[in-house]
Amino acid sequence: MGTLTYKHSGKKHKLLKWLKILLPHSSIRFYPPQFILRDALVSSTKRTIKQGNEAAVIVFNIKNLRQISEQIGVKQFDRFMYSLKRMYADVIKENVSLEDILALHDYNSDGITLILRMDSEMHSLLDIDGTTSLILQKVKDRLQDEFPQIKADFETGYMFVEKHAASLKKAIDKAHKQAAAMAERKIHSEFNEMLFQMTKIIEWKQIHLLAQPIIDVASKQIRAYEILTRGPRGSMLENPLTLFSVAKQTSMLYDLEMIVLEKSFEQVSKNGSSHDIFINFTPVTLGNIRFIKDMERILDKYKNVKAGQIVIEITERDDIDEVEGLIQNIRALKFMGFRIAVDDTGAGYASLHTISEIMPHIIKIDRTVIQNIHHSTVKESMLKGLLLIAKEAGSVVVAEGIETEEEAIVLSRNKVDMAQGYFYARPARLEHA
């Protein structure tokens, strides 16, 4: 379970009580506030980062704890907090893969901090939103059943651990502070600093773009490029996951995605490239009432970039029915000549539902289906099934995350249209693509 150092003597009984009641499953690591983490979390986070993944810190707090304490009294409040943390532990244990849980930690006694291993791809930002919302809703439901008289005002925030920090423990502590600041929206806190940085990035358009080739599997020729976004070089926000997580939590996601769109058009116009260009958008941005007008403005500004060259890639797995205006805007974009791609197909039901609702021109198969497919007849059968769905929808197929020759051979054998991944090419600066 890892080595723990006591802050105060005589706490062993309390630790055992926490462990037994909060997290009966021994595979989950829980660290109560009375103890200082020595090596366990740092070593597991270090291992996660070495494997090319991200460590995400999620803070779950209750905004009106003081009012609740005054309402129900000290004795009942202790039982409330005890039950609340047990609920968090149970819900997390039931809904999150144990191998992805780096730690469950009570930093400040007001809530729970969950530290997760996340995939390094862009959609991890969207996964973390889904995970957070799921946990929070289930805890709310259980709390309502057990304490119907209490109206708790929940708040959450998240941040990714900086990978290249001199001290990983300090980086974890910093990520926790920033996640808590996002949750609490504090005045005079780290939230203000991140808000300032994000505002500056939006105002000065301080992002740079990379482009990863998408290859024709049969001919091995470049057919298209996918645009990848990075924040200011050398800053905490250079990491796209951190950049987009801060943008989302500071209500600047639409502005950031529109800057990506305009900079993509600007560079394609300068390059004079004839390749197709894939640009990622979240459903919330695509459904925005301003989106079509902003797209028309950019098309008019860069007249040598045609709509038919641009592929609008929907990056989120969430239920598209929940995003007002999305379907109407997708129809308008198709009418304007843009093509639509659905990302992460095969990762869950939501992507298949999205295909049936949108009927995209392009289906991108998630790398979880492709990874080590040469060792799995089940995965190859899944690929065959997705190819049949694509054929029925009239969609072209792009396989993502190809890292080995063996995976590429399976794609060729199954006549997949296009592919992208480090096996074919790494991302390069867009102006050099």
Automatic annotation (TrEMBL):
GO MF term list: cyclic-guanylate-specific phosphodiesterase activity
Superkingdom classification of source: Bacteria
EAL domain ranges (all copies): 191-433
InterPro entries per record: Cyclic-di-GMP_PDE-like, EAL_dom, EAL_sf
Pfam families on file: EAL (PF00563)
CDD domains the record matches: EAL
Gene3D superfamilies, sorted: EAL domain (3.20.20.450)
Record protein name field: EAL domain-containing protein
Source species of the chain: Peribacillus deserti
